[in-house]
Design a protein that fits this description.
By secondary structure, this protein is of the alpha/beta class. It has one domain: 3-Layer(aba) Sandwich (Aminopeptidase), CATH 3.40.630. The protein has seven helices and twelve strands. The strands form three sheets. It has an eight-stranded mixed sheet, sandwiched between helices. Strands 5-8 form a two-stranded parallel sheet. It has a two-stranded antiparallel ribbon with strand order 6-7. Helix 3 packs across helix 7 and helix 5 packs antiparallel against helix 7. The two termini are 35 Å apart.
């Protein structure tokens, strides 16, 4: 399988767990777990790599509901960025959390109530917003649903409506209950487990992006965007170290623009409590073919570069946990 989670280095004791489920119209037709997590028993770095947008476990009725199946899949998926995530995790010995549920069904980087109710058939669901680490209720302040890219995507720029018909309220509920809630509950628990073991934890929320335009004063367009919610989701030293490494590696990088991170960082990052989070966007042209449909020869060198970045950031996170000293980390 292209994204095998069992292929850590020989002799590494790896624990794998799956959770949630991708619901279909009939329970017997469910498409398997909503996510899978794998991590070595002994992790050399306090890092978790999460890939929320590369899922490809489509129930038949979801595929049949697209107005243009191929185009919508290509536009909505972070196509094969899960292969990058697995390669980085295997190289660095970190844990990796892969969502199998497609973004078209439910966007894990959106609040559970960020819903365009005009696309839903049935009464509205009563809100029960989860709390952040600081105790605040998580709402849908950004209201991405208004742009067509809420919890369940409705429209694509330049294309229009994604779906042939309305989504039944019961199906929306099933997606929230079996995809969104278990994924975020697991992510919270795993980050707390790493933080408790090391004193600090770092979440790398890994995404891919369409090619960006060249910025004024730069010779090349950004190939990487590092998002930290404008300083709210991680320590400043982590971001500084990321940009030093990317510059030394020859990659053009941007900070927070146009992607600063979303719901995942808002919900799970808590730097004051030792949980840091960065969103890393990589340009699809760096590892996919011209149609952004299949993996290219660029995947392996990109994965190697990102593995180096994770090692740098993991070392910095360990230093943060030990008052600037790395030699005491995780002993």
């Amino acid at each position: 399988m292209s994204r095998s989670l069992s292929a850590y280095p020989l002799g590494t004791e790896v624990f794998t767990v799956s959770g949630g489920r991708v619901p279909a119209k009939e329970a017997a037709a469910d498409c398997g777990p909503a996510f899978t997590h794998a991590a070595p028993r002994s992790m050399p770095l306090p890092v978790l790599i999460a890939v929320p947008h590369a899922g490809r476990a489509y129930p038949d009725h979801v595929l049949a509901g697209f107005r243009d199946e191929e185009l919508c899949q290509l536009r909505l998926e972070d196509r094969f960025v899960d292969q990058l995530g697995v390669a980085i995790a295997k190289s660095t010995g970190t844990g990796v959390l892969l969502a199998h549920a497609p973004r078209a069904m439910l966007d894990l980087n959106r609040a559970h109530d960020d819903i365009d109710w005009e696309m839903i058939q049935g009464a509205r669901r009563r809100s029960s917003a989860p709390r952040t680490h600081s105790g605040k209720r998580m709402g849908s302040a950004n209201r991405r649903a208004r742009s067509g890219l809420g919890l369940v995507p409705r429209r694509l720029p330049g294309f229009g409506e994604i779906w042939r018909g309305l989504l039944p309220r019961e199906e929306l509920d099933a997606r929230i209950d079996h995809i969104h809630r278990p994924y975020h509950d697991f992510l919270r628990c795993e980050l707390e487990r790493i933080r408790d073991a090391w004193g600090a934890a770092l979440l790398i929320d890994l995404h891919s992006m369409p090619p960006l335009r060249r910025q004024l004063g730069h010779d090349r367009a950004p190939q990487i965007v590092v998002g930290d919610r404008f300083g709210a989701s991680s320590g400043a030293n982590l971001v500084s170290r990321a940009f030093r490494y990317l510059e030394a590696s020859g990659y053009e990088a941007a900070h927070n623009r146009p992607y600063s991170g979303g719901y995942v960082l808002d919900r799970h990052a808590a730097p004051s409590r030792g949980i840091h989070a960065l969103q890393i966007e990589v340009c699809r042209s760096a590892y996919l073919d011209e149609r952004f449909a299949e993996v290219s020869s660029g995947l392996d060198p990109l994965a190697a570069m990102l593995a180096g970045l994770v090692r740098e950031l993991g070392a910095e996170t360990a230093r943060l946990a030990n008052g600037g000293r790395l030699d005491e980390a995780a002993e």
